[in-house]
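Standup notes
- DV: blocked on the single-chain target, sequence here:
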Amino acid sequence: MAGAGLMAGSLGCSSLKSRQGSSARVAFITANLVGRVSGYRFELAHWGEQHKQTIAATDATAWRSICRDISATGYRAVDIWEAHAAPEVMNRERGATWKAILDEYGLKAIGYGGGLSRKTLEICQWLGIPQMNGYPGDNTPEQATALCREMGVRFNVENHPQKTAGELLKVVGGGNEWLGVCIDTGWLGPQGASGPEVIRACGKLVRAAHIKDVKAAGTHLTCLLGEGVAQVAACIATLKEIGYSGWYEWEDEPEDRNPLDSAVRNRLWIEKQLA
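- DV (later): unblocked, structure below
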């Protein structure tokens, strides 16, 4: 049943692409709204506190507001941040409510960002999400593979400290049917790593892509796509070059502004690169 759920999710994704074209391949990462609970004023160093506050603040009314605001900017797919569907508070009934709200606003959940565990994979099942992007926690590659196979949900390690393909692939034991890589352009550029080189080296194991730009090397202050140092246009070109067919997930977790104000601009920017 779990495997069937994964297949259904993949087929649904393909069907959506065929109906809507390239725009259907651009998703909104709800972690963009990390600053929502504090009026978009926070510091990256306090991410953990924002995470806790978001869990506490996200009831069904708040989730409906989030989905309404994202849908209004033209996105039809989302990667859900763990704090918006947290294992501490989610259950099957709540999952059904979250899924109904997604459906109400025409949003498809295509990823879940967080730590790999049985509970987070259950949440993916409840919401019809085919893969997680994040960190494996205490799971070895063998344990992660067995858990993902059992639950029918893939896992992709997202680069944060890792700067090379070798470092990324080591986390997932070289990768396999269930374990792959989520490229985050906004963490490669600031560390002086070449996004295109890492993407090319990971090849077919790249199964998710977070498209983010930052102002300068050595910082993590985000900016409009194409105006920073993360080589996002070159990264997208390289993803196309290696035959990547997954989602391009816009990521911008600003510390001093509402990302919804630039959501349309950045969606159109990605679509232009894909055209």
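- Follow-up: The longest strand covers residues 108-115.
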